[in-house]
Amino acid sequence: MEPVRLGLIGGGLISAKHIEGSKNITNGSLVSLCDVNPACQSLAEELKIPFFTDHRRMIDEANLEGVIDGTPNQFHAEIGIYCAGKGIHVLTEKPIAATLEEGKRMVEAVEESGISMLVGHHRRYYPPIRRAREIVQSGELGQLVGVSMLWALMKPDVYFEVAWRSQKGGGPILINIIHEMDNLRFICGDVAEISANARRLVRSGEVEDTVSIRFELVDGALGTALVTDTAPSPWSYELTSGENSDYFKTDQDCYHFLGTKGSLSFPTMEVWSHPHDREKGWWEPLMRRSEQIGYSAPFTAQLEHFCKVIRGDDKPVITAADGLMTLATTLAVLESAETGRAVAPQELLEKA
Ligand SMILES: NC(=O)c1ccc[n+]([C@@H]2O[C@H](COP(=O)([O-])OP(=O)(O)OC[C@H]3O[C@@H](n4cnc5c(N)ncnc54)[C@H](O)[C@@H]3O)[C@@H](O)[C@H]2O)c1
After folding, report:
1. Which residues line ligand 1 (CB under 6 A)?
2. Is residue 277 very low, low, confident or very high in pLDDT (cuts 50, 70, 90)?
3. Whose CA is nearest to atom 33 of ligand 1?
4. What's the CA gap between 20 and 295, in Å, rounded?
5. Once rounded to an integer, what is the mean pLDDT over residues 78-100?
6. Fewest Cβ atoms closer than 10 Å to its Cβ: which of 109, 127, 213, 333?
């Protein structure tokens, strides 16, 4: 079968990952590029594909089956809805949209048109994340009662030379914690309620540098996440998971999942439990089972999956509605930090 014809909108940082991914798949092929910045023409020339500066023209003229949207958040709704109107499938970068209102309009457009829209939460394609979900959902840990997440690292000074990163909306909650909330939802299920404190303990500017989050899952487990981007530490997804070789890799964990039959550390993937034939209790020895999970590139797997979904050979790992709930969960952290009250992501979504 012919490879799926894909168009890429946006020629920036994240698009480089999609371009790399497209070179490693056989069921899809990048056939056109669009960016409002004419300087990106040279990238299209390098890839030997046509270049457009208007996404509507590319969508109308390039005979596409799928679009990858790598533009900034505020364009996701307009582009996604335009694609839906033309019957073209979309892989939109995360977050699904800049606001819940826009995200809801995208979900409606997807439902009306019958296209598939995936949201680019690429960690869902990383084997250790998938395995953690399998272990938690298999019941091996028993009833999940607790989750502990740490996202602590030091952002370098140069990171803050880009002005918007010190302005409202540019802090770790919206930029980084959206990934943690998606991991949490993917592995453990939806979050019923969130309380958070966000502080600017060290840095100047308008954004938080340290956040504590308390949450309750719909299935009843309780959890916490401690977030700081101003402490050198080995305990973050970025530095532990090995997913992105740009980061220094440590051999530590960033998450712990606790159940009535056992516990799982991530990403060391150690399951701690009592032997089946022994009493359970704090006097009893615990046994440890470790798993080695091989590496495979999540952006490649994501694109391969997108093409399979377009051909009807796979069900979406993440739909538009699912991506919208991850955005609502992340905005619930922000709203709780701003108002001082507990916030339910579902209510936030209904109010939008
Ligand atoms: N999955 C991830 O881990 C991850 C990581 C980084 C960024 N992102 C997401 O990717 C998106 C883009 O981020 P980035 O860091 O690549 O930004 P970027 O600024 O590096 O690139 C965006 C590109 O889009 C172009 N553009 C802007 N408006 C356009 C339009 N209307 N039509 C065509 N081109 C347009 C810009 O000229 C620019 O080249 C954001 O939504 C961001 O949240 C995801």
Report:
1. 9-15, 34-37, 40, 55, 70-73, 75, 93-94, 120, 122
2. confident
3. 35
4. 16
5. 98
6. 127
Closest CA to 7 of 73, 40, 74, 52: 52
- What are 226's strand-pairing partners? 150, 212
SS3 content of the chain, % helix, strand, coil (to 5): 40, 25, 35
What CATH number is given to the structural domain containing 15? 3.40.50.720
Beta 287-290 vs 270-273: how paired, if at all?
Answer: antiparallel
**What are the tens digits of pLDDT across the range 92-118?**
999 999 999 999 999 999 999 999 999
In-domain check, residue 258: yes
What confidence category does residue 279 fall into, taking pLDDT thresholds of 50, 70 and 90?
A: confident
The Cα–Cα gap between 324 and 314 comes to 21
Amino acid identity, position 77:
A
Confidence of residue 168 (pLDDT cuts 50, 70, 90): confident
Q: Which of 9, 13, 74, 176 to mutate to test the pocket of ligand 1 (most atoms within 8 A of CB)?
A: 13
Based on the domain organization, do 266 and 306 belong to the same domain?
A: no
Angle between the N-to-C axes of helices 127-138 and 178-188, in degrees from 0 to 180, rounded to the nearest 10: 40
Write the burial class of residue 214 (CB in 10 Å: 0-12 exposed, 13-18 middle, 19+ buried). Answer: middle
350: tokens are 């209904």
| Structural domain harbouring 157 | 127-294+329-339
Domains in the chain, number: 2
Assess whether 207 and 118 both reside in one domain: no
Give backbone dihedrals phi and psi of 131, rounded to 5 degrees, phi first.
Answer: -70, -40
